[in-house]
Specification:
- This protein is globular.
- By secondary structure, the protein is mainly β.
- About 0% of the residues lie in helices and about 30% in strands.
- The chain is built from no helices and 23 strands.
């Protein structure tokens, strides 16, 4: 085994876990889940069978990642964030054939207690604020907050908010240009 797992973690046979991962207390990773290299899963994380995680993903405590969710490389998911996979759930109606896919792009961050409604993708390096409820697609590099979530600006790949006028990062020096609803690095 080339990864660390806490004794209380439940890893089902057939789960694929990359080298260098750290899986903490009370996690459950189901058969069929695919987790890349160097990922960290905090306490009480659930990973469903069809979930795919890239390399370097960080999932904080108390997050359930349900069927249909893809987390690309270097995604950050804050504590108690929520993913859904059915739009109209009912206890007495099976909707397993209606799961909607959600893709979280490379380097994106999802804040604590945010909710990502299924079928809506989050672009690379986008930033979802704590407690936001995402009900539509989020373009790359955009900063979204609120209920329902809406765009309030731009963020750099390093995570700092960009000046809307210059699209220049005061922290790392990166420069961007608008390209439709997203940015491209210069």
């Amino acid at each position: 085994m080339s990864y660390f797992r806490h004794d209380s973690a439940c890893i089902d046979e057939g789960a694929m876990i990359g080298d260098g991962c750290r899986i903490w207390h009370f996690c459950h990773i189901c058969t069929g889940a695919k987790i890349g290299r160097d990922c960290v899963l905090g306490q009480n994380v659930f990973v469903a069978p069809t979930v795919v995680m890239g390399n370097g993903v960080r999932v904080q405590n108390n997050v359930s990642i349900y069927d249909g969710v893809v987390l690309e490389d270097q995604v950050f998911v804050g504590p108690s964030a929520v993913f859904t996979n059915v739009v109209n759930p009912r206890a007495h109606v099976s909707r397993k054939t209606e799961y909607r896919r959600t893709i979280v792009g490379k380097g994106a961050s999802i804040g604590a207690n945010a909710t990502i409604v299924c079928g809506h993708n989050i672009g690379p390096y986008a930033f979802i604020g704590a407690g936001a409820v995402v009900t539509r697609d989020v373009p790359a590099y955009q900063l979204w907050v609120g209920v329902p979530a809406h765009c309030i600006g731009w963020v750099c790949a390093c995570g700092e908010r960009l000046s809307d006028d210059t699209l220049h990062c005061a922290s790392c020096g990166a420069r961007y240009a608008r390209q439709g609803e997203t940015l491209c690095a210069l």
